[in-house]
């Protein structure tokens, strides 16, 4: 069997390594993709430094953009030469920080004409996260196709997106705006406020302000018929930086979803991060608050989303301009390993703000 290079974590806090791994021949509905661009995300840091949900040696990454080079016998929608992008994570063959990725075609969409692969690769994992969170954790309908004159039933309820400047937050805002949600507030650094308002936030708050919780409550009191906050999505999952203020704002009846893991201690040079997966434990929630953790890895349980989200909804909303990709920071380096290590170091040192780290997988 032929082999190719893959970036693996060999143990928590250890330097990454490049291994030669088998290049499987696609079977059934699988395609083989020559992976051109990938992204490094906080999950890569959680796994490399914290050993979260990994069994080393494990290939990292879950965002792929490249060309189809081989198809299995049951593939019906994609063909050799198509430019595709996708969120793939379940097996070593599907993971993204490697030269070839083999996965079923339903985990990919076609990159819209005119969109670069480096921009496209910022989209899949957190676009899927946005959709999964609101349909699964909050039971929002997000009907597809969207009926003309669609009015969401939660339109009069305030929604707080904590951390709207994050990659997830940016896709969430854009999707909710398109469905007609207008009562959305968000927290982010001031430098991101203008963009987030364009993405649909009615009001942005500086999360670093000492009294940010009071600022938010004060704003809601000025709003006619405000019944408080109905839904809170914590896009950050920092025990101190987001969960604590969110717990102060959530009252009986508020539904809170937190992107897992909850970070108890941040990764840093020489510091092993600490995580908690039980969201009930991480704050003193008021009676009647309904809190849940988000696990996007389960989105395929929804058969409709499994079939339509990446192949159809994601490229359609991108090509029609409803969604724009995250800004990209291109991570340079002369080897695959150098680029992967540098990206991880930038995540560790919190050098990512309102953008996604992307890098070339292929040296060709
Ligand atoms: N469980 C799941 O299904 C799932 C899925 C996707 C993501 N996640 C997790 O969700 C988290 C976010 O992922 P991501 O890819 O969206 O991250 P990201 O884009 O890398 O997040 C960085 C952004 O977060 C902002 N930020 C940091 N601390 C903040 C705080 N206390 N309040 C408000 N904003 C803050 C930063 O803003 P400034 O630079 O302006 O300070 C920066 O723009 C990660 O921990 C990730 O692992 C989980």
UniProtKB/TrEMBL annotation:
Domain Enoyl reductase (ER) stretches: 13-358
InterPro entries per the UniProt record, alphabetical: ADH-like_N, ER, GroES-like_sf, NAD(P)-bd_dom_sf, Trans-enoyl_RdTase-like
Source organism of the structure: Capronia coronata CBS 617.96
GO-annotated molecular function: oxidoreductase activity, acting on NAD(P)H
Signal sequence, renumbered to the chain: none
The protein's name: Enoyl reductase (ER) domain-containing protein
SUPFAM superfamilies: GroES-like, NAD(P)-binding Rossmann-fold domains
Family: Belongs to the zinc-containing alcohol dehydrogenase family.
Domain of life: Eukaryota
Keyword tags: Oxidoreductase
């Amino acid at each position: 069997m032929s082999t190719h290079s893959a970036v693996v974590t060999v143990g928590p806090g250890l330097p990454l390594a490049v291994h030669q791994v088998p290049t499987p021949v696609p079977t059934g509905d699988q395609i083989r993709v020559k992976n051109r661009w990938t992204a490094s995300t906080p999950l890569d840091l959680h796994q490399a430094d914290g050993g979260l949900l990994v069994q080393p040696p494990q290939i990292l990454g879950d965002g792929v953009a490249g060309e189809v080079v081989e198809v299995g016998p049951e593939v019906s929608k994609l063909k050799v030469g198509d430019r595709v992008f996708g969120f793939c994570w379940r097996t070593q063959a599907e993971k993204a920080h490697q030269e070839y990725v083999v996965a079923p075609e339903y985990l990919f969409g076609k990159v819209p004409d005119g969109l670069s692969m480096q921009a496209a690769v910022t989209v899949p994992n957190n676009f899927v996260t946005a959709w999964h969170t609101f349909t699964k954790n909050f039971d929002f309908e997000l009907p597809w196709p969207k009926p003309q004159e669609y009015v969401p039933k939660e339109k009069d309820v305030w929604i707080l997106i904590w951390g709207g400047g994050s990659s997830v937050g940016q896709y969430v805002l854009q999707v909710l705006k398109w469905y007609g949600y207008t009562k959305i507030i968000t927290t982010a650094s001031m430098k991101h406020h203008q963009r987030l308002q364009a993405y649909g936030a009615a009001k942005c708050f500086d999360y670093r302000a000492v009294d940010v919780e009071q600022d938010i409550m004060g704003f809601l009191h000025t709003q006619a018929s405000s019944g408080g906050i109905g839904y809170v999505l914590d896009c950050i999952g920092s025990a101190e930086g987001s969960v604590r203020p969110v717990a102060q704002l959530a009252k009986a009846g508020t539904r809170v979803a937190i992107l897992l893991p909850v970070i108890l201690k941040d990764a840093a040079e020489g510091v092993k991060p600490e995580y908690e997966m039980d969201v009930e434990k991480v704050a003193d929630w008021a009676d009647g608050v309904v809190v849940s953790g988000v696990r996007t890895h389960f989105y395929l349980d929804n058969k409709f989303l499994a079939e339509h989200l990446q192949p159809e909804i994601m490229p359609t909303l991108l090509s029609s301009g409803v969604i724009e990709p995250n800004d990209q920071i291109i991570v340079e380096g002369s080897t695959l390993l150098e680029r992967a290590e540098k990206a991880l170091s930038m995540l560790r040192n919190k050098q990512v703000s309102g953008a996604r780290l992307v890098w070339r997988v292929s040296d060709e």
